[in-house]
Amino acid sequence: MSERSLGGLQTAPVGFGAMVLSPGMYGRTDDDRGVAALHAALDAGATMIDTADGYGADGHNEALVGRAGAGGRDEVVIATKFGFRIPEGAEAHSFPVGYSFGELAVNAEPKYVRGYAEQSLRNLGTDVIDLYYPHFPDPQVPFEDTVGAVADLVAAGLVRHLGLSNVTAGQLRAAHAVHPVAAVQTQWSMWQPVDPELLAAARELGVGLVAWSPLGGGFLTGTVQQLGEDDFRRHIPRFDGANLQTNNDRYAPLRGIAADLGLTPGQLALAWLLHQDEHVVPIPGSRTPAHIAENTAAAGVTLDAAVLHRIDEALALFAPAGRGALLAEADG
Ligand SMILES: NC(=O)c1ccc[n+]([C@@H]2O[C@H](COP(=O)([O-])OP(=O)(O)OC[C@H]3O[C@@H](n4cnc5c(N)ncnc54)[C@H](OP(=O)(O)O)[C@@H]3O)[C@@H](O)[C@H]2O)c1
After folding, report:
1. Is residue 1's pLDDT more than 60?
2. How far is the CA of 152 from the centre of ligand 1 (A)?
3. Residues 194, 167: contact at Cβ < 8 Å?
4. Is 55 a catalytic residue?
5. β-bridge pairing 181-187 and 208-212
6. DSSP class of residue 248?
7. Is the pTM value of this prediction over 0.85?
8. Which of 19, 26, 317 lies closest to 191, judged by CA?
9. How high is the pLDDT of residue 2?
């Protein structure tokens, strides 16, 4: 599969999500393993590396991306997000979410945005961020104001493209009227449908889609049987208690389709996403080079209409137990 365009930003069809490379996310890791994973992603052909100032403590995840040298490579798209690392003296604003902790603390006031970007540039060891997102719309700040602050960074040459993350269709339209949006990052996978209004608005405006947790946080690979005590996914009701076993049982028909096609379940999940829209780029995360190669190879999988129909029929019957959506208003 050739490159994809996200509102004019060119990237390989399958990107890489670096969040899992920071401690406290989805199992044990360390920095050497993280840098090796980033190199494996770039070697496998991923060109978009997705990180955030809020992954890990003190910009840990961005610094790993910097240590891997990703920011110094012309073909690499560095995408990062802001709003979680609240400066001393700034207010924490509550953003309600559907995971069991109930809310996140954010601050996307325009006066802090340049400082966020400058810190991210230092962490990443680069002089320009290719794609810069407010991680969440700040409920205490008119969204257009936050977006305007990113537009100022584009004008100043610190940022190349504006992205939005975890927004509604209305927020996308409002932002796009302030400054062209290259991509919207949204939770989208076989077990978490995209918001149809958001998809329609993105298509109408020529905005690309970056699918986060495209493997359903690992579930869709069929390999998640139990979670460690400190695994972040314990906060997601779908992974909690008996739900995980129930969901693995209910997911069996889709694992069966993958086996019939000679694919892994994760490859089927990524290939299915790539066939939903020509402007979608999934960003699977992994600490494991073999998994990374497997995921990136999904870009070369073609699913014909009959197979897509068979998958859609199986998905229509697949009703996961427990909420899976991060956004409080989205269906679980
Ligand atoms: N904007 C937002 O609010 C937001 C929220 C969440 C995530 N994101 C972004 O989306 C990216 C991806 O999301 P995610 O990490 O939540 O979930 P994901 O990519 O759906 O799943 C990652 C998990 O799947 C496992 N995995 C990956 N490939 C595998 C394979 N081939 N076989 C078996 N297991 C495999 C990984 O374990 P191993 O390490 O063992 O391979 C990891 O535990 C993040 O890195 C982040 O950049 C954004």
Report:
1. no
2. 32
3. no
4. yes
5. parallel
6. H
7. yes
8. 317
9. 84
pLDDT digits (tens, 9 = 90+) for 151-203: 999 999 999 999 999 999 999 999 999 999 999 999 999 999 999 999 999 99
Residue keyed to tokens 């403590």? 57
HSE-CB for 305 with a 13 A CA cutoff: 0
In the block, residue with structure tokens 């890990």: 56
Rounded Cα distance between 161 and 148, Å, is: 13
Contacts of 241 (CB under 8 A, 6+ apart): none
Give 96's strand partners: 103
**Domains in the chain and their CATH numbers?**
4-317 (3.20.20.100)
Measured from the CB, is residue 13 less than 6 Å from ligand 1? no
Pairing of β 77-82 and β 129-134 = parallel
Read off the pLDDT of residues 79-123 as tens digits, 9 standing for 90 and up. Answer: 999 999 999 999 999 999 999 999 999 999 999 999 999 999 999
H-helix or E-strand spanning residue 246: helix 242-250
β-bridge mates for residue 151, sequence order? none
d(CA 157, CA 251): 46
Ligand 1: distance of its center to the CA of 108 in Å?
25
Ligand 1: atom nearest CA of 295 is 31
Quick one: tokens of 210? Answer: 């970056």
Q: Which of 26, 55, 112, 132 is catalytic?
A: 55
pLDDT of residue 232: 94
Q: How far apart are CA 87 and CA 102, in angstroms?
A: 22
Distance CA 107, CA 119 (A): 15
Residue 53 one-letter amino acid: D
CB count within 10 Å of CB 317 equals: 9
- The secondary structure of 160-176 as a DSSP string is EEEEEES--HHHHHHHH
